[in-house]
């Protein structure tokens, strides 16, 4: 039989030892059940970018001011080029594709949605959507494309040094070379009609450029300002008998309703020269300009650098497309009563005849 002193001294000690063993065992079990993906304390996380950040899904908000072939081509070129470089749609990139339907208020609401969703990057196609995105966020990187003059639009401080969270690619078209096409088609042309959206900076810049270029070529520009696509046909009709040709710049509102201009031009046998090739494919006679699909690809190359952490918008110069090409539409020329010069056909990069 144990003495009272032995029990008094020994039992508490044994209980303490047993408790210590239980606490240690529980601690080891807890450590062994930590998620395997947890990084050791103090270890830097992997840099952003496709294969370097395993398991990350990027969110890219894409907004264009309106849907028409040129802007659509820029969007599809961007997505295709991203996929070629490992950023595949619905695999490691989720695109939120939006159209503002020509309304600035819609563009602002969409940009606010992108900010609320915490998107990794915003692609703004055309000037108004880029302005809306910049107005909404100064933190999310914004890339624009199909913007004629980003400095005049107050998107960047300069073409060489944007200085903020915005950069991208410009679609500045060679206006003087395009107006020369009118003289090549109709040597006695003196007056050129230009319809444009008075609310888009992009368009005002091109009208001023057209006036300057026309002056050099011995022609004048007749302007017709509109505020909605429904006014395009009436504007074109108001110029009948006053102009020798129409010039359709890369004005998003007018391009989206170019069929209205073409209807008047074909009925009155007035040649139409466009600011970009998709308008020629839609029925204008010719253009000398850029490829919007390739412009989208070029913009994607910039996005890749941003997402991989290799560059920041503030330090990335605005890029332009180096190569221009002549595209002509033989069927459109026939409908407008114009004979295409053989010299123009011979140097064309693309001839549309069906």
Structural class: alpha/beta
Q: Round the Cα radius of gyration to an integer and report it.
A: 30 Å
* Major β-sheet annotation: 6 strands, parallel
Low-confidence stretches: 1-52
Q: Helix and strand succession? A: HEHEHEHEEHEHEHEHHEHEHEEHHE
Give the strand content. Answer: 15-25%
Q: Order of strands in the sheet with the most strands? A: 2-1-3-4-5-11
The CA-CA distance between the termini, in Å, is 114 Å
Shape: elongated
SS element count, helices: 13
Describe the structure.
- Residues 32-51 are annotated as: Disordered.
- It comes from Brevibacillus fulvus.
- Helix content is 43%, strand content 18%.
- The chain is an alpha/beta fold and 354 residues long.
- Strand 6 (191-197), helix 6 and strand 7 (220-226) form a beta-alpha-beta unit.
What does this entry show, briefly?
With 354 residues, this protein is an alpha/beta fold.
Could you name the key traits of this structure?
single chain, 354 residues, alpha/beta, Rossmann fold, four-stranded parallel beta sheet, 13 helices, 43% helix, elongated, disordered N terminus
